[in-house]
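Objective 1b: paired records.
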Amino acid sequence: MDYHKQGYKYVVDADIKGFFDNIPHKLIMGLVEREISDGKTLNTIKKFLMAGVIEDGKFVPTKSGAPQGGVISPLISNIVLYTLLL
């Protein structure tokens, strides 16, 4: 797409330090629940968020954030960032 022809004048490229690691699960789930009502899908997303990580060979539960490298993490980040445009 040619955004300039559509009237867009600015492009923002930013790196939000610690973004993926610090998105509150409650915020993520609240935003996802606005669009999805299927309980199985919501439960799967919640399990994904709470799956934990391995640090220094030890399991660490996740209490916030979207796991980096996860297949739906980019989608989750876009859902959260989209709310800034509203």
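Objective 1b, second protein:
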Amino acid sequence: MIKFGEGILGKDFKGIVNIIVGEGPEIDSAFTNAITRCPTPLFANLRDNLIVKPLTIVVPQNQPKNDIEVEFLNGVIQYGVAKCIADLLFENKLNENLKIIATVSIPDIPYTLLNKRKLFQYYYGATKLAINRALSQYPSANKIKKEKYRALHPLVGFRSIKLERPPYLQVALDVPTIESMEYIINSLPKSDRIIIEAGTPLIKKYGIEVIEQIRGLFDGFIVADLKTQDTGRIEVRMAFEATADAVVLSGNAPKSTILKGINECDRCGIISYLDTMNIKEPLKLYEDLKLKPDVLMLHRGIDEELNENNGNNINNINNNNNKNSNNNINITKNSFIEKNRPILGIAGGVSTENIDTLKNNYDILVVGRGITKSREPGRIARYIINKLGDDIEQYRLYLDEDEELNL
């Protein structure tokens, strides 16, 4: 039996403790290997010649660089770990036949700024947290699923969003100039529900590198609307290297191109969109593909929309009697088995008037000219976002922790 846990606590600096705890041959082997590693570990003791039970070794993550760090490790850090282990033993949360490996960080702080009581507090607390988590096998798979789109690493500063929390507003930047692009992006509200689409005209004019310019203004989810018709692998890789989070493939492309594009997206870890503009039977195309795109996008083109009298009526997309529309079937979330369905998007005719209906039937609502041609693009975007739901951060708990009490 061998279990693992991590504890990180602290404000001015972080007390980081990783724990391996167990009993039997596996932990015996790990314990023996750890005690002979470099930098040299030490037994956790309360004072000289008094090691604690369960037998515990303290292994520094980094080699002490000077006498101050050597004193930290051999003094208050070692004591914080040892005192915690001793307390847990006599609280009957550990038994003395276990073995424990505690890997600890050594903070890089000047001795003149050191508060030994704070240093002890952090490492004692981090050790207890790590052991409790190891014994309870925290985190659960459900916890990871819940947090994977919410977690913000303190040394990274941005999230990698994979469209786990629909619905989303996708703002299509079909604007012809960099100045217009910058104005629109800077006008948008800060929200986890906004996707930026680098529109096809924008990419054609400025090249795939325009995505990196967008990234400098917006560090969320960015879609490269390439509408790839050929060389699926090459175009996907180009968009990936420019930091796009997703690539749009055209449903009118040969199936081999679509499949190669989807496969390359999967290999590179980005999202594949399949655009069904001018496809008469989008659902049949989707079902016939051996590799499925992540996003199926129902799409009426701008030119087609402008030619219709009621261009803002989304029913024109799904109206079976509308002979002018190639998207002449009614596809919504209910068209699929929930566990197997793609992320479903809709573009063309999305407006403030039909958001309430569309958000229940689609995961991604694409708005282009309704925002980019508005005198107040930020206000229109905020109106739509407010209809879609709360942002991720609204109900976050302190330190992102919500562990159950296990009573």
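The longest strand covers residues 2-9. The CA atoms of residues 74 and 139 lie 31 Å apart.
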